[in-house]
Automatic annotation (TrEMBL):
Annotated ranges, domain MOSC: 18-176
Superkingdom classification of source: Bacteria
Native source organism of the sequence: Dictyobacter alpinus
GO MF, any single term: catalytic activity
Name of the protein described by the UniProt record: MOSC domain-containing protein
Record-linked Gene3D superfamilies: PK beta-barrel domain-like
Listed Pfam families: MOSC
Length: 188
């Protein structure tokens, strides 16, 4: 588990991505606008209540804990080394980061980006079969198991927008850990 600000000294936004349609991949942008309590302006997943189609079908009144999807560029590096062709936005993330072990962050971590934007981490992305429609074998590549056999989801994290603002590539990311005890991320 990460414990100090030193662990995040080089944290940066690599790319920002958005799609107004419910498409698997999102388009690279020069800038995205985060809207408090809603998500990414112009993105299909914008809203106070859940916008992911499979979740809407179950209960459209659920709170949207998946307003912003973040993936660490280090995952893209790992996947490319394994023979996959992936780049920022292609796996559906809004913000691609580098220099943060996103999967190790505790629930409730706040990520400060740009001049004012703050995203609070709500949990892990639960990768689905659409990854294999994008590239065969990608779903298995983003799942692993620890020593105890517990499933590890590596396809990024989800968050909600606490404070709106613009986010651009090369923006530094300041990580604010919640008060302890820390709760590990679970799928949302």
């Amino acid at each position: 588990m990460l414990e100090t600000d030193k662990d995040f000294a080089t944290a940066v936004v690599v790319a920002v991505n958005c799609s107004a349609e419910h498409t698997f991949s999102k388009h690279n942008r020069e800038c995205i606008q985060l809207l408090e309590g809603l998500g990414v302006e112009g993105d299909a997943h914008l809203g106070q209540t859940v916008q992911h189609r499979s979740r809407v079908a179950v209960d459209p009144s659920q709170p949207n804990l998946r307003q912003v999807h973040l993936i660490h560029a280090e995952l893209h590096d790992e996947l490319r080394a394994a023979g996959f062709a992936v780049s920022a936005g292609q796996m559906g993330e809004n913000i691609t980061t580098r220099g943060i072990e996103l999967l190790s962050l505790p629930t409730g971590t706040r990520l400060h980006m740009g001049d004012t934007a703050i995203v609070e981490v709500t949990g892990l992305r639960n990768p689905c079969y659409q990854l294999d429609h994008f590239q065969e074998g990608l779903l298995a590549a983003v799942l692993d198991h620890d020593e105890q056999g517990k499933l590890i989801r590596k396809a990024g994290i989800m968050g909600i927008v606490l404070t709106g603002g613009q986010v651009r590539p090369d923006d530094p990311i300041r990580v604010e850990l919640p008060a302890g005890p820390h709760r590990p991320l679970e799928r949302v």
